[in-house]
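Please decode residue identities from the backbone states below.
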């Protein structure tokens, strides 16, 4: 009798929860205990345009009103975007739709920006995708949440739909410490095949879109990471590949996902070089796999393959061509053993009595909504009888199995095919965080045998090496404080010992690394601030508020992503800096007035004239590192605290405040109230051509993408700027005036349909 031990141990003082940031609020929307109603109210002419066959493949969004009704409670959101979505479903009688809460106004619905309403036209049970999403989640694989809803458009019932969580930067943010890494949507023919060393080769387009389409950092458009992974899979000799592959992709997590694909017969994923995501986790510096589009499962087949009996170890033989990642995994004995274990875990879920009861519950819950669905029968002629039969038997054509008989057939095949396995322990979860004084590691383990101990190895920047043993025979939690580590780079690894003496190194080869403590060479500094602004300078609203001046000391432009300001060292990420570029030798003024509703840059805290703390932090590899901190004493009316020499010196009370200027140019002539130039942009949104207006003469103009790429640099002769062939999105105009001052404003580019 095998047993599974789940063990968690903690190193450090502060514990961090993994991958659950923001999920609780939106769980209300995806609760599957009832069937909510979604109403879309849209101008009839707009709806006619959406449904016009000439526009089926358009992604143009039309304004509409969204109403969500659940268990008697209704919520209304105006000015949302509405359009068709999907691939083949756009031409189907029962179409699929995308709801974009934030298309026309910055807002969210229970923490969500977008929803996908899928018609599930291939599946008579309307449940296969939902069941797969839940299985992936139960196996610990990051996956979308889903539930069924009744959709009405302008009062007309459009049928029973699957409401599926949208995979984008919000999806990543809710599950990882940072969403700053590249997210690739991988569609046919995304086979991870080697094309060459040049990363741009992997931007190749098929049918008007890229096989590896960037969904985060698309403005930067840097494919170096995925090109490196593919190069390792193809170019590195087999005897050296294990370590590199393990460092570049979370192999343990992917094997869990592969087990779900195999057991559910998900042939339209990586096996079909289609329908998956790869996210580069900047906390762990490796890729993580997400599944996508799961309706061709549980016996849906178009090619004459019996997916219920396909051999689990030769699954990718059905592709009839190489799949580099999967072929490598199945060639490594340790991974092969692990796959057998993971398939057994999925099988345990499916054979449980509670799972059959869950199928019954879903069938009964959805039946009345399916019975009333006027569109469910239009694509394949399925009626309510087909819905009922599809749970237990094939109904012909591409539906080769009912849900129950597919599961029973697959479970029997698994029982026969699975080899004896003895996998080493698996770290299901490893997250590292830190304060200014210590590093925290949080680890969750899964093992067939009890864990005896864990050896922790780490080396600090001074090459001091430490080994500490966690003995689980006496305790299951160990607090370890790294207070003696000097700030800098820390390398660390683990050895996990089972009760029989076997151990697994983690990572399999080498060490992980993180920056600990402070960043000593960051070019961004706090340069000056005022904690009691009585009459020195007013903000855009005419208010005399506290202010903080940041200064770029370098010769390069800094993009301010991942920087934070705070007045509380216990909350270093209190206020995120705006996602804008800051040019060399330039200043940025932040109003510390705790008023986020005003235009401009306003932090969510105030400064105390009696003295307190100002901190600048940066998130790097999942850690918040100190960039610049100042503790100050009492300050008088209109008295500023600034660096002399400018940008590099110690803080002193200045004779004269110098907001937006070099502190060394101050004199004792009294308070000077500098003019803050007004920069205007129109039209905004634009198609790429904008006109600029300002209260004083402009000298140079730069336009930056939201990803930090410089797209325009001009001398403004006629006060107009053109972006050639612009992508939709957010851009920033930065102007340098004749007097050396600078201003930044934001605008959007929207393409007309």
């Amino acid at each position: 009798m095998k047993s599974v031990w789940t063990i968690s141990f903690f190193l450090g003082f502060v514990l961090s929860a993994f991958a659950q940031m923001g999920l609780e609020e939106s769980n209300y929307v995806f609760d599957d205990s009832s069937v909510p109603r979604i109403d879309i109210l849209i101008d009839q002419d707009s709806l006619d345009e959406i449904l016009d066959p000439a526009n089926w493949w358009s992604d143009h969004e039309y304004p509409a009103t969204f109403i969500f009704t659940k268990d008697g409670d209704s919520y209304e959101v105006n000015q949302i975007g509405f359009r068709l979505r999907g691939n083949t479903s756009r031409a189907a009688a029962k179409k699929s739709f995308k709801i974009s809460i934030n298309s026309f106004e910055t807002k969210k619905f229970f923490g969500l920006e977008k929803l996908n309403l899928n018609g599930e036209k291939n599946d008579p049970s309307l449940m296969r995708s939902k069941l797969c999403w839940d299985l992936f989640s139960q196996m610990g694989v990051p996956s979308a949440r889903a539930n069924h809803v009744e959709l009405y458009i302008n009062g007309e019932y459009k049928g029973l739909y699957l409401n599926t969580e949208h995979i984008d930067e919000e999806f990543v943010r809710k599950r990882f410490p940072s969403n700053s890494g590249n997210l690739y949507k991988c569609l046919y023919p995304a086979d991870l095949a080697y094309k060459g060393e040049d990363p741009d080769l992997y931007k190749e387009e098929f049918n008007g879109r890229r096989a590896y389409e960037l969904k985060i950092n698309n403005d930067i458009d840097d494919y170096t990471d995925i090109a490196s992974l593919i190069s390792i899979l193809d170019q590195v000799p087999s005897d050296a590949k294990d370590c590199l592959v393990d460092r570049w992709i979370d192999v343990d997590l992917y094997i869990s996902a592969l087990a779900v694909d195999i057991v559910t017969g998900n042939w339209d994923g990586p096996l079909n070089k289609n329908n998956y995501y790869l996210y580069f986790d900047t906390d762990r510096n490796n890729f993580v796999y997400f599944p996508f589009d799961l309706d061709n499962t549980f016996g849906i087949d178009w090619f004459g393959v019996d997916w219920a009996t396909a051999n689990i170890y030769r699954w990718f033989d059905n592709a009839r061509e190489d799949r580099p990642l999967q072929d490598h995994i199945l060639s490594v004995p340790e991974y092969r053993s692990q796959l057998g274990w993971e398939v057994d875990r999925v099988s345990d879920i499916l054979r449980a009595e509670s799972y059959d009861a869950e199928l019954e519950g879903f069938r009964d819950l959805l039946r009345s909504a399916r019975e009333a669905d006027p569109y469910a029968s239009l694509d394949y002629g399925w009626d309510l009888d087909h819905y009922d039969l599809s749970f237990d038997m094939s109904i012909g054509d591409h539906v080769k199995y009912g849900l129950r008989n597919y599961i029973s057939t697959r479970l029997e095949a698994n029982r026969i095919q699975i080899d004896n396995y003895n996998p080493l322990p698996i770290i299901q979860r490893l997250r590292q965080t830190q304060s200014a004084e210590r590093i925290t590691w949080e680890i969750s383990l899964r093992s067939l045998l009890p864990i005896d101990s864990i050896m922790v190895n780490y080396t600090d920047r001074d090459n001091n090496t430490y080994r500490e043993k966690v003995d689980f025979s006496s305790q299951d939690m160990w607090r370890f404080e790294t207070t003696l580590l000097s700030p800098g780079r820390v390398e660390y690894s683990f050895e996990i010992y089972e009760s029989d003496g076997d151990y697994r190194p983690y990572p399999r080869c080498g060490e992980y690394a993180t920056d600990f403590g402070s960043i000593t060479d960051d070019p961004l500094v706090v340069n000056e601030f005022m904690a009691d602004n009585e009459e020195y300078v007013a903000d855009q609203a005419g208010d005399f508020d506290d202010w903080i001046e940041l200064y770029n000391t370098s010769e390069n432009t800094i993009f301010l992503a991942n920087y934070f300001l705070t007045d509380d060292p216990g909350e270093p990420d209190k206020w995120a800096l705006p996602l804008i570029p800051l040019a060399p030798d330039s200043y940025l003024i932040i109003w510390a007035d705790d008023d986020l509703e005003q235009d401009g840059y306003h932090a969510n805290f105030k400064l105390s004239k009696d003295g307190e703390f100002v901190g600048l932090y940066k998130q790097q590899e999942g850690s918040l590192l100190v960039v610049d901190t100042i503790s100050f004493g009492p300050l008088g009316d209109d008295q500023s605290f600034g660096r002399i020499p400018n940008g590099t010196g110690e803080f002193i009370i200045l004779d004269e405040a110098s907001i937006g200027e070099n502190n060394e140019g101050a004199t004792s002539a009294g308070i000077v109230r500098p003019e803050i130039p007004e920069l205007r942009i129109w039209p905004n949104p634009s198609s790429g051509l904008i006109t600029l207006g300002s209260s004083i003469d402009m000298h140079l103009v730069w336009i930056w993408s939201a990803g930090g790429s410089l797209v325009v640099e001009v001398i403004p002769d006629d006060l107009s700027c053109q972006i050639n062939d612009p992508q939709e999105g957010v851009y920033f105009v930065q102007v340098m005036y004749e007097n050396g001052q600078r201003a930044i404003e934001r605008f959007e580019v929207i393409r007309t349909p």
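Observation: The chain is about 20% helix and 30% strand.
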